[in-house]
Amino acid sequence: MLHDTLHIGCQSTIQLRLLPAVYEAYNKRCPDIYISTTELSDIRRRDILSEPLNVAFLTKDCADEQKNIRYIPLFEGKFCCIVPPGHRLADRSSVSIKDFEEEVLIILDTAHCPPQMGELQTEQRRNCQKSRFYLSSSSLYTVLMVEAGLGIAMMPDFVCPESSVLRRIPYESDLKPEVGLVVNMEEQRKKVLQFIDVAKTVYGL
């Protein structure tokens, strides 16, 4: 017997802490629909929702670069700096670009970097002439590198996983990173609309 499948994409540079709750609620509502999840690493493609993907979780700045899609906002975050225990910035209530001078900064490579993040990293490179820069290809590797004491990093607070060893310090910026769902503009299939409704409910919308 063939089963219908909902194909879901998730941007590799975000952490979706409520995704298990979304999947559980959707499975209860639509038990006959199989769920398939794909990590989206090439986030600068102009056709993220090409087959077989039905819906995807993206940051808004990446969604803005897509064509013929509808964007449904889910939650907003803020940028923060993550540092290891004992770091000179660990007890600060906030940090700014000037605090990064002479630090080792771990940044995302351009292939995996959303536009807002790229804007802030360009600012770091321009203003922190005495700093060293290490490259990472994912938020997970960035966190591991910070935990190892290789340097510090700046990222949205919803990207950095909960950690008992790292300190998250608000970063002074007017940019507000946001995550939402994207679907094709003309999407009307029940399995997709049900998933959108479940996700909005779980995120309190």
What does this structure look like?
The protein has 205 residues and is α/β, with parallel strands linked by helices. 24% of the residues lie in helices and 28% in strands. It contains five helices and ten strands; from the N terminus they run βαββαβββαβαβββα. The chain has helices spanning 19-29, 60-63, 115-127, 139-147, 190-202; strands spanning 5-11, 34-40, 55-59, 69-76, 79-83, 104-108, 132-136, 152-156, 167-170, 178-184. Strands 2-1-3-10-4 form a five-stranded mixed β-sheet. It has a five-stranded mixed β-sheet with strand order 7-6-8-5-9, sandwiched between helices. Strand 6, helix 3 and strand 7 form a beta-alpha-beta unit. The longest helix has 13 residues, at 115-127. It is elongated.
Gyration radius from CA atoms, angstroms? 18 Å
Largest sheet strand order: 2-1-3-10-4
Low-confidence stretches: none
Helical coverage, percent range = 10-25%
Write the layout of secondary structure elements.
Elements: E1 5-11, H1 19-29, E2 34-40, E3 55-59, H2 60-63, E4 69-76, E5 79-83, E6 104-108, H3 115-127, E7 132-136, H4 139-147, E8 152-156, E9 167-170, E10 178-184, H5 190-202
Parallel strand pairs: 1-2, 1-3, 6-7, 6-8
Antiparallel strand pairs: 3-10, 4-10, 5-8, 5-9
